[in-house]
Amino acid sequence: MASSVSGVQTPNVVSQAEWNAAHAELLKKEKEMTRRRDAMAAERRRMPWLAVEKSYTFDGPRGKVSLLDLFEGRRQLILYRAFFEPGVLGWPDHACRGCSLGADQVAHLAHLNARDTTLAYASRAPQKDIERLKARMGWKMPWYTITDGFDVDFGVDQWHGHNVFFRDGDKVFRTYFINNRGDEAMGSTWSYLDITPLGRQETWEDSPEGYPQTEPYKWWKWHDTYSAGASPDAKWLDVIADPAGAAERRRLEEANAGSQKAATAGSCCSDESHD
Fold it and tell me: Which of 7, 164, 172, 237 is the most exposed place for a label (fewest CB within 10 A)?
């Protein structure tokens, strides 16, 4: 039956069986949307590349750097144009509200870095203001100052957006661009990797022949252990390698342990009776 909460008309309240049926029907559509999203990411990985012929210079925390330097030695770069500069709402205390909300969503960068990918921000504010803003807001991403026509050339002089680049030695290619509504979903490790030319680099993905791929789960680590080389307990490595099988093995181990404990307890009682 229909109902209302605080004057707002709500969907019908139904039985458990009816709710389960409605959920199952919606889940079919959600799974189809997931498959379409994966197919779209696969198309991105096959999108033609554009060679970046011009040289661009940015100001960074340690001075002048090139677009190539922004990769930090990795093969992939996602560069977000954030609006933080004179004339933007919030200046000089804040970046624009939308860009700031997006910055608050950014996942820990170690996971992207583990997939040979660097995420960086760029604005026209001086570095001293950028560093002050990052400290105030608790943001950790590299953030550079645009000093030339980069924003005009890559469609981010009037509006925010993510440009994606790939590095082959000293050659840089533009591989993808997303802005407007597409930007609002960015922030998770997966949303970032899905717009890169190499993708998540997992074996289930539909990627061109020869692209780097590893098994899902196996490359995942705590963000503070990627460089340390630390490994989880062996039982959790088992879970990572075979989640379903690991659960069954744990149940069998617990059952066996319970049987052994019961047998030991019975043996003790028998010994005492003979005494």
Answer: 7
